[in-house]
Design a protein that fits this description.
The protein is α/β, with parallel strands linked by helices. The chain contains 13 helices and twelve strands. Bound molecules: alpha-D-ribofuranose and calcium ion. Calcium ion binds next to helix 1.
Length: 316
């Protein structure tokens, strides 16, 4: 299988940070660029976080491009209660010396995808504003993007932002609607799958056997995230949504997908941002995505931990 060439669109965020680290630690994936969006924290903070994470991982060769600082239509919603004011929980990384790429995210996405038609996989683990804007700005992307993996939505699962809606979808439901109906080959990784993947204190203890800056970062970031999951959702550990979406690009066997017609409510009522699948074909519409509804959680977690141990040992 060819190594997926990935542009990661992200709102870094604690689990986003783990997805970036996993992409950098995984030889079967080629992370080629990062585009940043508002979401877990502000755009400005997210860009600083992405730069700091690259410096922590000694991966300062990667371009990081600034994207949207707010949704297409909805008011801006951030998640300090979940990811902390910094977006990285209790972690305190040095201010980055790296600078973001001068190219705006939409331009970077467009230029790199058009220069490599059929080659680039977009992994979107934040609100879909950047991807939606790129598709509207340059329709040729619809033929040029190889495939799209989206962490977002909740199908047969409760929302985590409203009772019905998941954070990335709810943050910009209009952007999600544009992407969902674009005709692109999409694999959706909703909360149905990601809430089966809980990073526990035992998992953290395993990583902390290596006392290095990387594991200290993971500990400080996930400690805040675990406190949130305990207080708000009575989960012992933290759900690491984004690394799962990233891993599926090179380990598709981690999940079981169903080909379904999926839509998102943009009608503006109590179910705004709710994502739903037509399991029985009632709408008589062609399926528009693969949906990961089941996962092998401990297989994924073992993979993630092994890669973090490798990365921690590889950094000087
Ligand atoms: O609902 C979980 C998703 O929203 C994750 O991607 C998390 O990082 C936030 O962006
Ligand atoms: Ca995210």
């Amino acid at each position: 299988m060819n190594k997926p060439r990935i542009i990661l669109d992200t709102d870094p965020g604690i689990d986003d940070a783990l997805a970036i680290l996993l992409a950098l630690a995984e030889p079967r994936a080629s992370l080629e660029a990062i585009t940043v969006c508002y979401g877990n924290c502000s755009l400005d903070q997210g860009v600083l976080n992405a730069l700091s994470i690259l410096e922590l991982a000694q991966a300062d060769h990667l371009p990081i491009a600034r994207g949207a600082d707010r949704p297409l239509v909805q008011p801006l919603l951030l998640a300090p209660e979940t990811h902390g004011n910094s977006g990285l929980g209790y972690a305190q990384l040095p201010s980055p010396e790296l600078l973001p790429d001068p190219t705006p995210a939409v331009t970077l996405l467009t230029e790199r995808i058009l220069a490599n038609p059929g080659e680039i996989t977009v992994v979107a683990v934040g609100p879909l504003t950047n991807l939606a804007l790129a598709l509207r700005t340059e329709p040729r992307l619809l033929e040029a993007i190889k495939d799209v993996y989206i962490m977002g939505g909740a199908i047969r699962y409760d929302g985590n932002t409203t009772p019905q809606a998941e954070f990335n979808a709810y943050s910009d439901p209009h952007a999600a609607h544009i992407v969902f109906h674009s005709g692109l080959p999409i694999t959706l990784v909703p909360l149905d799958a990601t809430y089966q993947v809980v990073f526990t204190s035992d998992d953290l203890s395993r990583l902390q056997k290596l006392e290095v800056p990387l594991t200290r970062f993971i500990a400080d970031a996930t400690r805040f995230y675990m406190e949130f999951h305990d207080e708000y959702q009575q989960i012992s550990g933290c759900v690491i949504n984004d690394p799962l979406a990233l891993a599926i690009t090179y380990l598709p066997e981690l999940v079981d997908c169903q080909e379904l017609y999926v839509d998102i409510d943009i009608s503006g009522g109590v179910s705004m941002g709710k994502t739903y699948a037509d399991f029985y074909g009632l709408l008589e519409k062609k399926p528009n995505m693969q949906v990961a509804l089941d996962v092998r959680p401990r297989e994924f977690m073992e993979h993630f931990l092994e890669r973090m141990e490798w990365l921690a040992g590889s950094l000087s």
